[in-house]
Amino acid sequence: MKEFAIVEGKPRCHCGVFGVFGHPEASVFCYYGLHALQHRGQEAAGIISSEWLVEKKKWRFNIQKGVGLVADVFKDEDILRKDLKGNAAIGHNRYSTTGSSDNKSNIQPFVVNYKTGNLALSHNGNLTNYRTLRHRLQEDGTIFQSTSDSEIILHLIAHSKQKEQIFQIKEALDVVEGAYSLVILTDDSLIAARDPHGFRPLALGKVDGAYVVASETCAFDINGAEYIRDIAPGEIVVIDKDVVATGNIKSFWVSKKSSQPHHCIFEYIYFARPDSKVFGVNVDKVRRKLGKLLAGENPIAPESPDDKVIVISVPDSSNTCTLGYVSESNKQGLKVKLELGLIRNHYVGRTFIQPQQNHRELKVKVKFNTVKGVLKDNIVVIVDDSIVRGTTSKLLVKMIREAKPKEVHFRISSPPIKFPCYYGMDFPSREELIANRLNGDIEAIRQELGVDSLSYLPMEKLLASAPTEEGKHYCTACFSGNYPVPIDPDAAKNEND
Question: Do 448 and 303 belong together in one domain?
């Protein structure tokens, strides 16, 4: 029997990171934080806590990592309360971008014991010069335990000649390039760092006098934590007992500068939860605006007054955008109705049954089902956030057609994806992207998907949906091919390695 994962035909999230310092139940807070960030990675999870052993007068790192969802890896409460003791902890939800998903050595957080003490790291993002750095470290005799680019940061820290740990970390981050949002646990501090472009989100919060750091603020809400601010692009924040006592946060900065940030705009389109604040802005607000602007692209007006136009989302990531689409369509005088035409099964997990029918079609049917009575004889507008390969979208359309609607139209709240991402998103190779394969020909894409009409949100309207105050700028490389950070030539040759 062969195992296969349920896939959505979407770019998959990189990872989720969480850290807490100064709370006696740090690992419990970390568990709930990772639970809230489960959407960012479902392959594996891990927590490492830092505990002071009074009798031995030394620090000990406690580790628990495993394959599966957070609730599976930490299903025994004793793991959190007895095995992961300490006032500080960091955690990680994994979805592999760089490094084999089958290699358990790639499960984070990574931990080392070196000349300055214990050190653990959780990384969200991708380093663009990791192949060059890995080769250089191997030439110097470094032995790698994983195939992940994240391990490189630990080795660079360990190789540093700086005496103080914070400057060892700073020196390492001055060397790496690309996207990184990091939580680092030392014996007596929690360190959060973000690359100079600010590709990936990272937020700072506080609860019961303790400090927390997370990829998204939904991880604060579940723990009752207050959002303070984002870690700034290029900032290295140090939280220790003095910070907890005084509230005076210590900040250092990487030497490399960026003329402007390049936040990943896909966080707003798809990755982040709508109840999160990302890059300092509520995701729900941006997604609703995406939907409102999308409503102006090739609106559907029924030819007959007897025709009924219904709008359905592809749950769950496009739900909020669809609300904006319906609201604006009705403001424009188009009588459309929001309906639940697709139902998502949230408990699919993994299946181990080898089917005789087409694997990909079964995966879609296990994930979604149609409400046939809602769709039949109606004009159906499907709102989705993106189309990647097009295979899942094509099968969804086929399922909806089987319910015998009068027409089927597709509306996408992002531009066509034509280029791979090297900053932490898992896109297929350029040749597999439907918009690239068909040379950006919308009519050809429409025909392949089998819909009556297809419209994407233009780039200018996408950017108009995202906040621009306080110098906010965005990375749109997957749409435009304009990469803010140079790409390792070997990585470009092996896009999906």
Answer: yes
Per the CB < 8 A criterion, the answer to whether 427 and 7 are in contact is no
Rounded distance, CA 325 to CA 171, Å?
Answer: 47
Quick check: helix, strand or coil at residue 71? Answer: helix
Partners of 51 in the beta sheet? 60
Flag whether 463 is in a domain.
yes
319 & 452 share domain? yes
Residue 377's domain is classified under what CATH number?
A: 3.40.50.2020
Are both 245 and 303 inside the same structural domain? Answer: no
d(CA 14, CA 124): 6
Residues 307 and 454 in one domain: yes
User: Do 191 and 56 share a structural domain?
Assistant: yes
Say if 474 falls within a structural domain: no
pLDDT of residue 375: 98
pLDDT of residue 346: 79
Which of 208, 224, 258 is the last residue in one of the domains? 258
User: Residue 358: what pLDDT?
Assistant: 61
Number of structural domains, the chain?
2
Q: For the chain, which ranges sit under pLDDT 70?
A: 1-14, 96-103, 348-359, 471, 490-497
Q: Kindly report the CATH number assigned to the domain that includes residue 71.
A: 3.60.20.10
Name the helix (H) or strand (E) containing 402: helix 391-402
* CB proximity list for 76: less than 8 A, separation 6 or greater: none
Burial label for 270, CB within 10 Å (0-12, 13-18, 19+), is buried
Taking a C-beta distance cutoff of 8 angstroms, is the pair 297, 457 a contact? yes
Adjacency order of strands within the sheet including 110-114: 110-114, 117-124, 181-186, 189-194, 235-240, 250-253
| Residue range(s) defining the domain that contains residue 348 | 283-467
Catalytic residue status for 15: yes
Q: What is the pLDDT of residue 259?
A: 80
Q: What is the SS3 assignment for 5?
A: strand
Q: Rounded to the nearest 10 degrees, how much is the dihedral formed by the CA atoms of 411, 412, 417, 422?
A: -170
- 252-to-166, 169, 249, 415, 460 alpha-carbon distances in Å: 9, 10, 10, 37, 36
pTM for the full model? 0.91
Tokens of 408: 């089927």
Question: Coil, strand, or helix at residue 256?
Answer: coil
Give the max Cα distance, the chain: 82
Do residues 199 and 53 share a domain?
yes
From the candidates 13, 15, 321, 478, which is the catalytic residue? 15
3-state secondary structure of 356: coil
